[in-house]
Amino acid sequence: MRITFIGTSHGIPEPEHRCSCTMLETRGRIYFVDMGTQAIEDLRRRNIDVEAVKGIFITHMHGDHVNGLLSFVDLCNWYFTSADPHIFLPTEEGAAAVKCWIASLDKRPWRGIDLNVTREGTFYDDGFLKVTAVKTLHTRISYAYIIESEGKTLLFTGDLKGTDIDYPKEVFGNKVDMVVCESAHIDPLSYIPVFEKSDIKRVFINHCQPRKVPNALELAARLSGKTEVRLANDGMEVNL
Predict the structure, then answer these.
(1) What is the band of 2 on the pLDDT scale with cuts at 50, 70, 90?
(2) Residue 160: which domain range?
(3) Distance of CA 86 to the CA centre of its chain
(4) Which residues of 11-25 are buried (b: 16+ CB within 10 A; e: fewer)?
């Protein structure tokens, strides 16, 4: 499985960091966690068929995590009509808003793209990738995702209210091959107590405010020899 960080910014686009978007590839199938930037342009630049996208999982309805979804759905609705992605948003309002946006584009007919509302627990399993949602407190309805594929387990925390409050306890005591965690709202050092409760191989600090980078580097130093910790950057690719 390959993980590609398309966008790693802390909330607004920066010269070298676009808004939150991570691409997963397994057995020729493509999935996204969040789509805050124009991911469909990256697919085209990388010569990846849009039809290869099978699932999109949005953690919460903030623009820096979802704005790129509109253009993706628009192009799948009228041009890449053989694409069949399953799209999951946290709220009914979000799904309805996407449909309303498409309807406003010269009244194009909706061709029935699969829009769904995420539910807690395991809500997606296509035999290649399994996704379990854990509710968080960052917004009225927001989720972290536990993703399993090719015998590997990944945790995407999404945005959190506090590691002592809504870091997913479901992974405690388990082996986790990779954690992608935010530090726009969370001090990286506050992850230490919860990381100690799982066997974690690799951590990527994503969505990081520049002022928190020193603490992210200190986290890497403190966990050296036990867990690899790196700052995620746009374009970074990781093989698991």
Answers:
(1) very high
(2) 2-239
(3) 15
(4) beeeeebbbbbbbbb
Mean pLDDT score, 224-237? 97
* Per-residue pLDDT at 108: 77
pTM of the model: 0.97
Side-chain half-sphere exposure of 75, counting CA atoms within 13 A = 15
Residue showing tokens 């930037």: 37
* Domain containing residue 57: CATH number: 3.60.15.10
Sequence-distant (6+) residues with CB within 8 A of 31 are: 23, 24, 25, 53, 54, 55, 56, 57, 129
Q: What is the pLDDT of residue 50?
A: 98
Q: How many domains are there within the chain?
A: 1
Dist CA 73 CA 136 (whole Å) = 26
